[in-house]
Every structure is written in structure tokens, then in C-alpha cells.
Amino acid sequence: MRALLVVNPQATATTPAGRDVLAHALASEVKLDVVETDYRGHAADAAALAVVEDYDLVVAHGGDGTVNEVVNGLVRDGARPGLPMLGVVPGGSANVFAGALGLPRDPVEATYRLLQAVEHGTSRRVSLGKVASAGGAEDHDRWFTFNAGVGWDADVVAGVEQQRAKGRQASPGLYVRTALTTYFTERRQPSSLTVQIPGEPLFEDVRLAFVSNTDPWTYLGDKAIRLNPSTSFDGGLGLFALHGMGFPTIARYVTHLLATDGNPRGANLLRRDDVEFVRVTSAEPVNLQVDGDLLGSCTEVEFTGVREALTVAV
After folding, report:
1. Coil vs helix vs strand at 261
2. Residues 6+ apart with CB under 8 A from 28
3. Which residue of 177, 201, 209, 219 shows the fewest CB atoms closer than 10 Å?
């Protein structure tokens, strides 16, 4: 088996020693090549080249951003049979995709699980989401593995990226503080979104629209946050959209999500599971995030679910 290991040396939980151990362990089972990324998009380019060169396995070692880039490289020319299998060894701060797959978040344990999967040939097919946006500084087409959204969550991602550019390390605490800061900005300057789902009337005056490809949405430490608990890698997309951003509304949902296993309900909440398509428009540009990565602003974005798009070693 030919395998490519794509490593992000800047990821939160990766170390030179850990990378060496991972590479040595993989090289004992497969014919291994290693690429360390040194520019934005490098992981995607490396994975796309692996498709052309008929590799059997591409392993992403880094955070969710690295995984997202590798996936986008693998399906750059579309999701189709015969693509290399994806392997994941977490190395970031959240590792949502790996957690949703039931993979260990510890890199050593995840490496052992990956070696077992290679040895025994165990894998699963997973669905992916795709976004196509327009109306911003530039248009985007991007695949996502676990979530995407416009509104408050994308503004939080934008705020965290600004803090990281100043040298701050991503952490649950940084996300919580940024979420509080951006919430009060949203209260003063609320987004007004229109949401379209096939076969249903338009939903107008929506404040945030969040689309998930699986459950959970994210983690606060070891706590899984579950907005769309009926959404999985085996089906379509889940939608969580709020009509109001008042403090009682937000406090009720946040308390519910932290205290229970999810499944929030309420008059201000629009929830759907297993949908194939969601379209969101806005009169003013709003931020768009994909797998925790800020794509920029847009006035129109389409979210599409693609079933059984990729094979993952588990």
C-alpha cells in the first residue's frame, strides 16, 4: 500500500517527536512518503497530487483545518470511486471530525487505531457537505467535513483568527470569550438572513444559519456540543437556524446544550435533519465559515449534502 502522510507542523498538538513516531509506525506497514505543509492550501495540493499518482491512503496529521484541506484535495475533481482512502491522526485543539468518527483524540492512540485499520482493511464511507458562495470579495466552492455556517458562529471564527494572528493559541477559553464579544456585536448589528429548503416556504428574518454534516458540532474540552443530534455521516445535512438573538433565547439554548445531550427545541428555532440542500441569502455581506475556517463574506451561499463521498480508515 502506498501512503502519503500530510503533517501540519504548526498544529496545536503536533510535535517533532510525535511526527517521527507516527511516520516510523506507518512506514512499518506501508510504503510511506511524508509532506510537511508550509503554506495555506499546501495540504490540499499534496492530497490532489496523491490522487493523480494513485496513492492508496492519505493520512492527515493536524487539526480540523488540515483535515479539511486534505479532503478538499482528495475531492478536488469531484467525489467519485477510486479515490485514496483518508486516514486521520488528530493534532489540533478541537479535532471535531476525528471525534465524530469515534477516533481517539490522543495522537498515539489514533496512530495505533489507524495501523489496525490498515492491517485489517476496516473503513467506512462518509458523506460530505459542499458550499458554493457568491457576493463577497470572491466566490468560493469548498467541501466541509462536519459543519459550515453564516452569522454568529462565522463571526466567532473570524474573531478567533484575528486573535491567532496576534499570537494567541486557540483554546476553548478563547472561543468562549470571542463568542461573548461577537454576541454583543450581533445584538447591535443583527444579520437578516433568508433560508430556503426545497419544498418549503422561505424562512425570513433569520439571525444565524448553521449547517452540519454530522454530530457533534464541536467540543468544549471533552464536552460534546450537539446542535443536530440526528445528523450523521450516513445521511444528509442538518440545519440549525435562529430567528432571534435576544439574551433569554441564547441563554436558554446555551444552557440546554451544556446541560443535556442536545436536541434543542423552541419557537425561535428552525431545525431540520437529513436535508440535501439549503440556500441562505442576505442583503448585506455576512461571514462564512467552513469546518472552523473563515472563507470570507458572501451574500448568497448554497449548502449541498453528498452521500458516501469518501472512504475513511477507521
Report:
1. coil
2. none
3. 201
Residue with cell 496523491: 50
Angle at alpha carbon of residue 22, lines to 19 and 23, rounded to 5°: 85
Q: DSSP 3-state assignment of 181?
A: helix
Q: Using CA of residue 141, residue 306, residue 48, residue 144, what is the dihedral sign?
A: positive
> Which pLDDT value is given to residue 190?
78
Below-50 pLDDT ranges, the chain: none
| Sequence-distant contacts of 13-16: CB under 8 A, at least 24 apart | 13/63, 13/90, 13/91, 13/92, 13/93, 13/107, 14/61, 14/62, 14/91, 14/107
Assess contact for 67 and 297: CB atoms under 8 A: no
Q: How many residues does the chain have?
A: 314
Tracing cell 430567528 back to the chain, one arrives at 243
Are 312 and 101 in contact by the 8 Å Cβ rule? The answer is: yes
Distance, CA of 134 to CA of 236 (rounded, Å): 23
